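Write out the bound-state structure for adenosine-5'-diphosphate.
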Amino acid sequence: MHITGRNSAQHRSVLLPLRTMTIQEEAQAISDQFEVSPAQVKESVREFRRLMKLGLEETGHAMTMIPSYVTHVPKGSEKGTYLAIDLGGTNIRVCSVTLDGEKGFKIQQEKAAVSRELMTTDDPSKLFHFIATRIKKCVVEKLDAKGEYKLGFTFSFPVNQTGPAEGTLLRWTKGFDIPAAVGHDVCGMLQTELDKMGVKVRVAALVNDTVGTLMARSYVSNGNGSLVGAIYGTGTNGAYLEKMTNIKKLGNEAQHENMVINTEWGSFDNALTTIGNTPFDVALDKLTPNPGNQMFEKRVSGMFLGELLRQCLLTLSTNAPGLGGAGLFSGQTLTQLNQPWSLDTSVLSMMEGDNAEDMAVTSTIIQKELGLTTSVPERGAIKQIVRAIGRRAARLAAVPMAAIVISSAAERTDVSIDIGVDGSVVEYYPNFIAMMRESLRDALDRRAEEVNIEIATDGSGVGAALCALVA
Ligand code: ADP
Ligand code: MG
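---
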């Protein structure tokens, strides 16, 4: 019996007599559901372009298309010393960046932990005073203390940006909870503390990490500046250079030719019209605090691929009889496998990269992460599923790139078709960029060869410094 297509595994197990499929057949049936055909890539690109246009015309769409107020991408000749800070989690990073004007730079940085107390204080000025102290320390210890410096502030929380260095905090995430700061301008709160301390630093740019990635790549790229900055890490999102005349929702604000747009593409196709929906995606979505949202991100980024694998292994362990009548993991206690979020995406990377015949690395990982023993054929079946999940992620990950390249092609000759990427998934998942390229070819045919994709490191350092420079 051969089963392909998008039937749900649960559905099938009801229709078929139990224990008719081998582990290999079941793994094949699961993997097939993660297939993204060339036609589906093309359809997704069309849908992405439709949602881009909508988000540029009106506010209130899930794929928000946020204007960054950055109006140029660097070409490599920018010069000078700038400061950058990155507040996005439990650490604050303070950097001084010296750009040499020839695509080179020197960066000095220090990290400091943000205490639990500051993350949940009643008084926001305490947090911003702490940040200002770290900035002062950097200026005094690493730079000419009499100098005046511009600073780029990478702030990875939801803000409503209203100018290059102006944005009100919408809500805190990631364990921060300082209610009195919500609704206030984050750059203003930092500037106030810097001024009180007499530090001659001006907060010149409020920076989203995707915009920083685009700027950092654009500075070092060989061409004419870059078009897209994309992140595939914990989450996924991207920024690109757009013509002001297309950003209809900004009305008459158009005093510049271009502006970088932060797409918030993690929310692409929340309606699930083109990106597909397996029973494993459905189960995962139910476990999240935001069901129905960030649906593209839930198929592509590091936070979710491990859990998708866990969902598949659960199905495989219930549905497949395996060899000699013994199911996957048969007779073993599945305590850890039954635990949501118990698998990290780095596990998929390690298994994908395990090319030994006995898959000894995979054996060790499954033992360590799930406390389960496996046979070689079982590991083969698991690897097939890993590859299917990773391949779908990469093929979908190229959809926004293709859409932006097509949309820009008609009216853009001033920047290269150059894309900077950042994040552990794109950096460490084996062949991720090669699989993205296959998908790009499905969408763009021969034009795909013109698209240059490079890892862009340090968007929140160099990129934020560059945002301060162009602001
Ligand atoms: P952030 O997105 O927070 O800036 P990263 O870019 O490092 O940080 O992404 C972290 C995400 O990448 C996590 O979800 C983690 O599971 C995943 N990850 C970490 N290591 C790897 C790896 N080797 N291969 C694939 N994914 C990884
Ligand atoms: Mg990151």
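---
Confidence is low (pLDDT under 50) at residues 1-17, 321-325.
The CA atoms of residues 35 and 123 lie 51 Å apart.
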